[in-house]
Design brief:
293 residues; alpha/beta; Arc Repressor Mutant, subunit A; Rossmann fold; 56% helix; 8% strand
Length: 293
């Protein structure tokens, strides 16, 4: 169990714990910084349970005992001390909300990095590398992520198209075959039009890769589900970091596909680089005009 995920793991496991163990879970979730300085007798007293209950709680989370649990909790808090979720208020200065937004985004990226399953990523990379045609579906803030992915996979000689219009997604869905792949991207995993399109392609035997939260309709529909679980301020939709994390995951997939396709791709990428030179202004600076006398 990764230290950065410990508090989330406790919250997720809480419903499966005994009632007395849930008291321990509640206290730890509310007071993690205090728990790392406690003895087992102190935690038992604060949670109003017995010391054996604390031990059972730790073992239910796959730790050898309280000391092992406390060490992991301390490491997690130390690693994540500066990257907690933020909330804004009207009195925040530019310097303050800049710091909050960057710290929250970095923290989210670190958490997702720890949670991403390598086997799932490898399955997605293999599917993309061997596809005949790659289509990307997303709405709202997920649409530019699809556009970015289209650009990246085009560079890798993969026929890719991105659609953020429901009608175009329907048309795309009806033309795909079992040799094709769809990447569906969603911050919620619950967008109705997106789910409808994905159901169509699944019925056609198309491999669907999802980038969305776990335990959502889209994750359940996908052939390969890459879980992006973030706890964000729902009232600050313009500041959510889901889009940034999705972009990084697309980078991971693109690098994986490039490695899968082998060194022969390098010459192709060099050709692209040379062809783009003509679109860029050279480094020569225009001489400054002398001011008129």
């Amino acid at each position: 169990m990764q230290s950065l995920n410990l508090l989330k793991s406790i919250a997720d496991a809480k419903s499966n714990l005994r009632k007395s163990e849930q008291k321990v879970a509640d206290y730890v979730l509310e007071n993690p910084s205090d728990v790392i300085h406690m003895r087992i007798v102190d935690l038992a007293s604060e949670a109003n349970v017995s010391e054996p209950t604390v031990v059972r709680f730790c073992r239910a989370l796959n730790y050898d005992g309280f000391q092992d649990f406390k060490l992991t909790l301390a490491q997690g808090l130390a690693s994540n001390a500066n990257f907690e979720q933020f909330s804004l208020n009207s009195k925040d200065t530019v310097s303050e909300f800049k710091q909050k937004i960057f710290d929250s985004t970095v923290g989210n990226m670190m958490r997702v990095r720890e949670e991403l399953d390598s086997d799932t990523l490898e399955a997605a990379i293999n599917a993309i590398a061997s596809t005949n045609r790659l289509e990307l579906y997303g709405f709202g803030a997920s649409a530019p992520v699809c556009d970015d992915a289209q650009h990246k996979f085009h560079r890798l000689k993969i026929a890719a198209s991105a659609y953020s219009d429901p009608h175009m997604q329907m048309i795309s869905a009806t033309t795909l075959t079992e040799t094709d792949v769809v990447i569906a991207i969603s911050q919620t995993g619950r967008t109705k039009d997106l789910l409808h399109a994905v159901k169509l392609v699944k019925d056609a035997g198309v491999t669907v890769i999802s980038l969305c939260p776990s335990n959502t309709p889209l994750a359940d529909l996908a052939s390969i589900s890459i879980h992006i679980d973030l706890e964000e301020d729902k009232d600050l939709s313009t500041l959510m970091s889901s889009r940034v994390v999705h972009l990084v995951v697309i980078d991971v997939l693109a690098v994986g596909v490039a490695m899968k396709l082998g060194p022969g791709l390098l010459d192709h990428l060099k050709t692209i680089k040379r062809s783009l030179k003509s679109l860029r202004q050279n480094d020569k600076r225009l001489p400054l005009r002398k001011p008129a006398d």
